Sequence to fold (244 residues):
Amino acid sequence: MVYPPYQVNDNLRQQAQALFKKWFVDNPDAILWKEGTFSNLIEKTISGDWGKDSPSGNNTEMVYCIRGADIPEVRAGNKGKMPTRYILPKNYAAKQLVDGDIVVEISGGSPTQSTGRAAAVSDALLARYDKGMVCTNFCKALKPRAGYSMYVYYYWQYLYDRDIFFSYENGTTGIKNLDINGFIETEPIVIAPEDLVEKFDAVCQTVFSKIYANGMENEQLALVRDTILPKLMSGEIDVSAVQL
Fold:
């Protein structure tokens, strides 16, 4: 049976998360592993930018701006409907997203969905866009230590799936905000040795390449569908002679 690209991508994401759990949650080596927090693995966080919807004054740098609402599409391997904005060139130089960054939603959520949703930035993702990318000011970008991006990303997702982030939110009405610094500095984690993390990263890079290749195929199929279906419905294309 041939599965559509979006189902394949969902399976790939589940496999990567299951591999993380098997290697880093179910079988930690107490002798080789260290206790710590994400602050040991994240070099810095970068705030987002929203800029202007058209060139205005010194806001001349056109960028794609990833929002919290775009995170599910990005994680699924889709290009989605990320808006373009115009920001200061100096802000773009400081905030441009690059391979290995992790975008985290810090404002929003709901009673059943916490803030803290994350998407990993990879070269395969960035290649889908004709301009550079930053995150919105309702998100922050994490810059992990070299080689630890996938480890941080899947560890982050593992804790998110366990509803840990509800404990780090403030604001009881309206929009909730994530105390991301408090989470990074206090939530206890275990830190695996570099050689095992490097093996996991290599696996994830292959997975991400497949996810975005499948996402592109899915978009091409959708374009074909949207082009042909109206012509079929209007009778412009006659398929009455086609034998099934």
User: Anything to note?
Assistant: The longest helix spans residues 194-234.
